[in-house]
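Possible regression after last week's pipeline update?

I re-ran a chain I had predicted before the update to compare outputs. Posting the input and the new output here so someone can diff against the archived version. Not blocking, just want to make sure nothing changed silently.
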Amino acid sequence: MKSIKKLFTSASLALALLFSVNANAVLITQDIVVDGDVFGEVAFEVSNSALNSGAIIDTFFDGQPAFAGISFFGVDTDALFSFDAVLDTSNISAGLEFLSFDSLNGSLIFQLVVDTFSGSGFLDVFDANNDLIFFSSDVTLGSVNVSEPGMAVLLVMLLAGVFAARRK
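New output (post-update):
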């Protein structure tokens, strides 16, 4: 029985280390708020090496933050034509400082630009005939969710280790 516990503990530790080393990017999601309502969500990744570097990274120049996905009302976009985002890596919980993209969702084309410094932003939605069907200049970026899967695995393994030690 002791050898099984020892094997389980060793395997758990190895798995935790594998996940913590393998998680080389942090996934960040942020709400897109239009006219006071959550309209969609943008997801992007930032490499661990860029975190807390104090640098302001721009997709256009640095290749980061890397695009991970955009959804409108829970539906993922079909195609992305352009994506530019700016993030202060010393304060990732504040979210993006600038976001711009053009995307296709079904037969609708979305164009969005938000600049948090100037407080300006707009969203255009066009149909397949390129006719404007929606416009808003009241666009902001909402709540931010930063997930670090490696840390979650380490926490679970720590709790499992404490529980196993208490059972002895």
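Follow-up from reviewer: compared with the archived run. Helices lie at 2-22, 59-62, 149-167. Marking as no regression found.
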